[in-house]
Amino acid sequence: MSAVEAGTGAGRPSRLLGAVFAGNPGAVMARSWTATKTTNWLVVVSGFLEPVLYLLSLGVGLGKLIGTVDTGGQHISYAAFIAPALLATSAMNGAVMDSTFNVFFKLNFGKLYEGMLATPLGPLDVALGEIMMALLRGALYGLAFLGVMWAVGLNLSWTALLAFPALLIIAFGFASLGMGVVSFMKTFTQLDWIFFVLLPMFLLSSTFFPITVYPRPVQLVIECLPLWHGIELVRGLTTGVITTALLWHVLYYAGMIAVGLVLTTTRLKALFLK
What we know:
Helices cover 71% and strands 3% of the residues. With 274 residues, it is mainly alpha-helical.
C-alpha cells in the first residue's frame, strides 16, 4: 500500500477549503521522502557541496586579499560577509530543485498527481505535501551549511541561532512559488528558465559585495528580488546587526508563501479536477 493510500483516511477536510483540502498533506510528503531515500539521496547530498566550495575559494581564499567589509557600521571579514548569503542560497537551492525539477517529472511524466487526486486528497494536500518535502530539503542544506559556519567561527552573534527558522521561511517561500511556476512548464527546455532567473539573482543579491556598489535605480530592482531579502535577513541574524528592516524581510516572505500556495493549489485544481 502506498503512502498516499495509507494516509487518505487521516485528517479531516476543512469546511472552509472544501474539496481542495482533505487535511492530510503528510501522506504526500511521506511518499516523496521514501522516494528520495531510496533513489535520490546522492543528488541531495551533492547539493550541499556547492556553497561550501564557494566559501572556501572566495571567502577564505579571496577574502585574504579583500580584508573586511562594512555591514551596518560593523566591519567583518569577507568570509563572514558572504557566508550568510551562501547559507540563504543553500536553502533556496534545496527548495527550488525539489519543488521544480522533481515536481515537473511527476506532473508531466510520472502522472503521480492524477492518482493522488483520485483519492480523497485535494490539490492543497498535494501542494502542501510537496512543498513540505522541498522545505525539508532546503532546511537540511541550510542546517548543514550553518554547522560549517559554526565550525569555522563565522557566526558572529548569538542571534545566529535564529538563522535556522529564517532558513525555513526562505525555503518555504521559494518552494511554494516554485511549484506554482513549474506547473506552467511542459518541456525540459523550459526548465532552463529556472537557471536563467536563479543565477543572476544569486550573483546580484548582495551575495559577494554590498548592494551599495550599484547605482540607486539598480538597487531598487535588486531590493525586489526574493533572494536579496533572504540574504539580508540571514546576514543580519548571523552578524548581530538587528534592525526593524528584518521584519520587512519576513513579511516579504509571508506574502511570497501566500501567493505561492494560492497559485499552486489553483493550478493543480485546474489541471486535474476539471
